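This section describes the prediction task in plain terms. A model, or a person checking by hand, is given the sequence of a single protein chain and must write out its three-dimensional structure as a string of tokens. No templates, partner chains or ligands are provided. The sample shown here is typical of the held-out split.
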Amino acid sequence: MANGTAAPLSGVKVLDLSRFIAGPLCAQILADFGAEVVKVERPNGEDSRHHGPYHQGESIYMFLYHRNKYDASLDTRHPEALGILERLIEWADVVVENYRPGTIEKMGIGYERMKELNPDIILVSISGFGQTGPDSRRALFDAISQASSGLMSMTGEPDGKPTLSGTYIADYTTGYQGAIGALMAILHRERTGEGQLVDVASFDTMFSALGVRLMSQLMLGQDMPRSGSRDLLTAPVNVYEAADGPIYIQAGTASLFPKLCAVMERPDLAGDPRFATVEGRMAHQEFLEGEIGAWAAERTTGDIAAVLDEVGVPYAKVASVAEVAASPQIAARGMIVEAEHPELGTIRMPGNPVKMEKTPSTVRKAPPRVGEDNAYVYQEILGMSAEDLDRLRESGAI
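The expected answer:
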């Protein structure tokens, strides 16, 4: 830690019973800032471990959400599993789970039982539709969240089909919200001694992120159609094809539009009363985009970037994943981090986007293999003997 300061979550103990993305990401965020996180998964690995692509036989999917964690294998259907889980719940400050609502109750470790074992426990329950409501028991993956929440209906070209986001945006956003909920619950417990249930739903998270389209419906009763790469509220804003590839230009405000016209050497556009207001530019955006597109097509993205930088018009070359990963900005921000795995070698992963001056996130441990830390979890944390560990292993419990 910077200046010798302890990590902000140092001493916080987290039991991660989650799978896939949202729950594991939530727990990893806590781990990045110093929490001791124990991930429990079945002996043959959670489903995500069986999704390619693979690096030396290990799914790279797992490298994204499990750094800084200790991994303990456990067959939750084994006769001894419930007792082990109960002891881990007694040890933990926070439990993260993302089973379908009702599942942990069937396992014998629902929230009420957790409180009996550990009265001030914090349970972060991440689910598709939440713990309440008529859809609470429905199964959900990221794409279902995008479709059901309204996000997919907003995404894509106006004359095309609704489209998924290019990444698991619902899972990521829900994982972030889960971490926020956990942190608020930890702060509340420090002040009052009370634990609580944190109920985070992917559906709720995506619904809350619909922005002005949602407000247009709630306040005006109006639906706003899909707009492709255009901005919803200002123009001209779109992606244009330069001589060497696409570039996105944002010149929709009253101050930016004249600056773009100046670098294009088109004072006629800047002075045309049709384009003097946002409403006017929105009404004529196809014409304006045609003029800007013709100008951009005769120049490279580098040439366009140079003149737009001079006048302060926002732009971005539409970068590939390879290009952005290799960019100086990513390097300067520390957004690619590395960890040394004892068997797999160097693992490269996206860094934590929260940059804290005094207590930055750290990478202390590579994403573990299944059961890699069984000895630590079962012997050091739970106080079992080596013989106990051998017995559990032989019985198939771990």
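For orientation: The CA atoms of residues 258 and 270 lie 5 Å apart.
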